Prior knowledge:
The complex is a heterodimer of chains A (319) and B (287).
Chain A: E1 2-11, E2 14-24, E3 29-33, H1 40-47, E4 55-60, E5 63-64, H2 69-74, E6 76-79, H3 91-101, H4 106-119, H5 135-147, E7 153-157, H6 165-178, E8 183-188, H7 191-197, E9 200-205, E10 208-213, H8 215-223, E11 227-233, H9 236-244, E12 249-256, E13 262-269, H10 276-285, E14 290-296, H11 300-318
Parallel strand pairs in A: 3-8, 3-9, 6-7, 7-8
Antiparallel strand pairs in A: 1-2, 1-4, 4-5, 9-10, 11-13, 11-14, 12-13
Chain B: H1 2-14, H2 16-39, H3 45-51, H4 55-74, H5 77-81, H6 87-109, H7 112-119, H8 124-150, H9 155-178, H10 183-205, H11 208-228, H12 236-242, H13 251-254, H14 260-286
Amino acid sequence: xxxxxxxxxxxxxxxxxxxxxxxxxxxxxxxxxxxxxxxxxxxxxxxxxxxxxxxxxxxxxxxxxxxxxxxxxxxxxxxxxxxxxxxxxxxxxxxxxxxxxxxxxxxxxxxxxxxxxxxxxxxxxxxxxxxxxxxxxxxxxxxxxxxxxxxxxxxxxxxxxxxxxxxxxxxxxxxxxxxxxxxxxxxxxxxxxxxxxxxxxxxxxxxxxxxxxxxxxxxxxxxxxxxxxxxxxxxxxxxxxxxxxxxxxxxxxxxxxxxxxxxxxxxxxxxxxxxxxxxxxxxxxxxxxxxxxxxxxxxxxxxxxxxxxxxxxxxxxxx
Amino acid sequence: xxxxxxxxxxxxxxxxxxxxxxxxxxxxxxxxxxxxxxxxxxxxxxxxxxxxxxxxxxxxxxxxxxxxxxxxxxxxxxxxxxxxxxxxxxxxxxxxxxxxxxxxxxxxxxxxxxxxxxxxxxxxxxxxxxxxxxxxxxxxxxxxxxxxxxxxxxxxxxxxxxxxxxxxxxxxxxxxxxxxxxxxxxxxxxxxxxxxxxxxxxxxxxxxxxxxxxxxxxxxxxxxxxxxxxxxxxxxxxxxxxxxxxxxxxxxxxxxxxxxxxxxxxxxxxxxxxxxxxxxxxxxxxx
Lengths: 319, 287
């Protein structure tokens, strides 16, 4: 579908995108995640052919975006960071212009426009000047423009910015619905959005791809293995002795607990087996009552912060 | 291309700019037409048009300043340049939209010789040749404005630049007369231009060696030619500056001559500046 090879963009001395490689497959929703200024928009602008890359290639359905721009661009609907709308036009005029620009055949134009208008819930706004619309509606006009003609690939740069919570949920549902027939790439710095909507996450930072996987795998991957948090009453030695009998424990770290005579323990497990029952019986045999036991899973948020923080530390140390 | 053309046309005709443009051209031409041809009963319409050629200085920036600068500022160019339409089609659509707006007052002006014809004998071919030349000159000026609008994000800067460039083109005949016709004067002017060119090269390549080589080649060629045949340089700088004299190339039409060199000149101006506009947009995408 989309193949990005060795993509580099330099602005003078500044490297905005640094040797980016990834492939996008059909029928999935991809999330582009990164802190502000990570190079998300620049990458999207290069994929859509708005700006040229310094190095590297982008192939859309096998067409190079710079060599066969018209064929490649025909497969893409793009909503940039700032919706590209003309304030002096009405919603209908604007969408007609966009439809003509996208070479939708004359007979199908009206139907196509009606479709996207109803999909973005703007039926009442048809003949309003875009100038007079609120930010949320402007965003929806931009979104309608990107959906127009239902291109195979839909690229959305921060699609839910400026929308109210209800609209955000609507737009998310809309995007989810799109994945049945389209490939969607969306960028965001809102993590909950990405984990709620996307099948696949690409995390970039300082123009480099730091991770790419499904949201679930990413959480697992970052943890290395699952971990358990326990609060156990009893002497440290007794607890250790009891835990030694349990298999699949990689490491157990003891912390002080506010509760008297108790310890808080973080246990890292190897493998995928659930060892909570084994731990329970082992500690019961050792007469160490468990006050609390909880398995922890890193949320995408933690993964994101960890990945992007690590990068910064590396950069600082390299300076 | 048609989509952009229609959008521009509608944009001009649903906002003030198009009407201000049309009204201003008609008002100025109308005043001169009344004074020269109606009140004084002067039979040549071309002379009237020649007298109002300054109108383009004021009115071209009004028409062209927003054409690309505003798209860039509002980021609507992202829609245009990610659509499956090539850059030159977009530029041509915009250019033709502006030419159509210019065509509206010109069509009205075409009725003026008919009014004159009612009161006396006039040469229609002469009058319409002059109108044709006037229209071509307007198209040339619009092409210049189009290009200058593509190099900046600010409408004001685009307008001021367009006015300045067109003004210089308008008064270049006067500037020419400041410089002596002698060969050595031409040589000095050419050397100064070589220095400016070198500065531009340095600005673009940031490479001292290339700049020095380019400068030496240019200066060497000029001095070499001067030593070999200095008569080549007599009046050379005037000939060179004459290239920029857009209004001067309209003079042929004024007398009613369907001036081939004038037509070729105006069409070249249009093609060169439309081409440069496309290039300046492409360059921005690459840098």
